[in-house]
Specification:
CATH class: Mainly Alpha
CATH topology: Hypothetical protein af1432
CATH superfamily: Hypothetical protein af1432
Number of helices: 11
Strand order of the largest sheet: 1-2
Largest sheet: 2 strands, antiparallel
Number of domains: 1
Helix content: 55-70%
Number of strands: 2
Strand content: under 5%
Shape: globular
Radius of gyration: 18 Å
Structural class: mainly alpha
């Protein structure tokens, strides 16, 4: 029982760890809140995909995809774009998951670690589905948050395929959901009086520098 309570104490950190995203009431979102809505999205959309998926696996992936952040904390995606940064992030998160696996020291501990690897390496349709939903949930949350919580680069990200579009293109339902979410972001910028063409041009120039 002490082991069980120790695991739950670790998981509590996800309730306290704040993400880069803001809520509509100007409160920063926690990792746990993000994971909860991601799991709900998985339950809602699992039967709408081009290929059948195992819902139980999807829910498990959604619940544990950010579990390593109990130790590493949340790292915004635009802070780990270089190969060296991505590898360092992966290694730190892998070590955190290995700690959980060793602490649980049972089949479920092994399964948690294996599921996390499946998600990280995108080894199944389920893992691709949850990765896409992860990116969608982030952008939906941005759309729901006040525009003055957005950084300037987040306005440009609306017009750059690498942040969301490329994760959704493998499935027709997710592609349609992406288009709706992205249009919401564009409408939010327009409604606020932002110069869409200027933002788009800056986004395309920035994107060209990545190639």
């Amino acid at each position: 029982m002490q082991k069980e309570l120790a695991f739950l104490k670790i998981v509590q950190n996800l309730k306290m760890e704040l993400r880069h995203s803001w809520l509509a009431n100007y409160r920063q979102e926690s990792v746990a809140e993000h994971s909860w809505r991601l799991a709900l999205m998985a339950m809602r959309y699992a039967d709408k995909l081009d290929k059948p998926v195992e819902l139980e696996k999807c829910l498990k992936l959604a619940l544990i995809h950010d579990l390593a952040e109990f130790k590493t904390g949340d790292i915004p995606v635009f802070h780990c774009q270089g190969q060296a940064q991505r590898q360092a992030k992966f290694q730190a998160e892998q070590q955190a998951m290995l700690e959980i696996k060793a602490m649980l020291a049972d089949k479920q501990g092994d399964d948690l670690y294996d599921l996390w690897l499946e998600y990280e390496h995108q080894l199944s349709y389920e893992s691709k589905f949850i990765m896409a939903l992860d990116k969608l949930e982030v952008h939906i949350q941005h759309n729901e948050a006040p525009l003055d919580t957005w950084e300037e680069r987040e306005k440009r990200m609306v017009f750059q395929a690498k942040w969301l579009k490329r994760y959704c293109q493998f499935d027709s339902f997710l592609e349609r959901l992406y288009q709706t979410v992205n249009q919401q972001a564009i409408n939010k910028l327009i409604h606020a009086g932002e110069d869409i063409e200027l933002i788009k041009q800056a986004a395309l120039e920035e994107e060209a520098d990545w190639v």
